[in-house]
Amino acid sequence: MKKIIVTGGTGYIGSHTCVELINSGFEVIIIDDLSNSTIEVLNGIKKITGIKPEFYKIDLANAKETFSCFNKIKNVSGIIHFAAYKAVGESVNFPLKYYKNNLNSLINIIENMQEKSFKNIIFSSSCTVYGQAEKLPVTEQSPIIKADSPYGNTKQISEEIIYDTIKSTEYLKAISLRYFNPIGAHESSEIGELPIGEPANLVPYITQTAVGIRKQLRIFGNDYNTPDGTAIRDYIHITDLAKAHIAALNRLLNKENKINYEVFNIGTGKGNSVLEVVKTFEKVTGIKLNYKIVNRRPGDIEKIWADTSHAEKELGFKTEKSLGDALLSAWNWEKKYRNIT
Ligand code: WQD
After folding, report:
1. What are the φ/ψ torsions at residue 176 (nearest 5 degrees)?
2. Of all atoms in ligand 1, which is nearest to the CA of residue 127?
3. CATH number attached to the domain at 202-233+269-306+321-337
4. Which of 175, 182, 176, 192 is nearest to 19 (CA)?
5. Average pLDDT over the chain, rounded to whole?
């Protein structure tokens, strides 16, 4: 069984990817510092797959801890690197925390890969690197616009670190996946998005409003240049996103990559406005959502959605689930997490 290290594997995207890795016959080893997730997630993965992955609680930004952890793990076929701080707003207030953690973790991982001759890495990047693109949909060749948050900048710099390292060596092979907006939960509702505190993201805020934890959803702006005035994003079901990692990993393991550093947009290729998300949620759940329109949120872009043709052609990857599927799965997860039948 091929062994895959998943850093950040108890996190939202990481845990869903671990499920798909195990279902695809891989042995999974999770490294996480549990700064934004709980160890309970391992039980959720076990309930779904029957397997509880080997787990190391490590601060990957600490070189010594990372080195000693990697010393314990032999014959790794690939690494999927999710572990990073990801709250856009927080990164504006605490930039050094983000640069230190997100960049040192990546550098420590790459150094250990070189030390151990582990060849393959899949990097968790983000459509944030495009900023507000002039031309939509965005392709992998769309210009990388200077990020307006330290979080987004750590993703841009991380891609450059990987690219420059690969240029200087022959053996490392990497794929960066630029995610659009991941939403929803595994169909079993055994794992899902676990925002700590007040959610920044739209869909967990919607489900927490629907379940009564939040009084009202605030829709940030309806004066954008879009059909209904609210901002547009490309919302991808978390299970589709997880499956994209299997496709990318197999491309490297089967040596099908055309060059040693490749980048893919992972989205649905479709944009939906905030109001469309709200209306779809109401339709699939039968719940009337309490919301009001407020001012725009600083730093938000107006609209973005993916040109998915590169991933379709090279990875054979296409999303299968709809916006409604994702929103219903998010609602089912919220109810189960709050013990509501
Ligand atoms: C989506 C839309 C909001 C909350 C961020 C990161 C991105 C990725 C996903 C990590 C926007 C609106 C939101 C609310 C609202 N994270 N909204 N009321 O900002 O597109 O992307 O999360 O990789 O990198 O930038 O996602 O869910 O916060 O917002 O009206 O209570 O919903 O204004 O238009 P975003 P989001």
Report:
1. -100, 130
2. 24
3. 3.90.25.10
4. 192
5. 96
Chain-centre distance for alpha carbon 193: 11
Residue in the structure block whose two tokens are 């040596």: 255
Residue type (1 letter), 50: G
Judged against a pLDDT cut of 80, whether residue 341 lies above it is answered with: no
38 pLDDT more than 90:
yes
330 lines ligand 1 (CB under 6 A): no
| pLDDT reported for residue 221 | 98
**Where residue 300 falls among pLDDT bands split at 50, 70, 90?**
very high
Interstrand relation of 76-81 and 235-237 (parallel, antiparallel or unpaired): unpaired
State the alpha helices, DSSP H only, in 72-126. 88-93, 95-98, 104-116
CATH number for the domain running over 3-184+235-266: 3.40.50.720
| CB-based contact 61:105 (threshold 8 Å) | yes
* Substitution candidate for ligand 1 out of 92, 179, 201 with most atoms within 8 A of CB: 201
| Residue of the CA atom closest to atom 26 of ligand 1 | 201
Q: How does residue 170 score in pLDDT terms, banded at 50, 70 and 90?
A: confident
pLDDT of residue 226: 98
pTM of the full predicted structure?
A: 0.97
How do the domains of the chain map onto residue ranges? 3-184+235-266, 202-233+269-306+321-337
The pLDDT tens digits for 266-294 are 999 999 999 999 999 999 999 999 999 99
Helices (H), 24-55: 41-49
The protein residue whose alpha carbon is closest to atom 8 in ligand 1 is 181
Q: Which of 322, 311, 86 is nearest to 193 (CA)?
A: 86
For β-strands 27-32 and 3-7, DSSP reports them as parallel
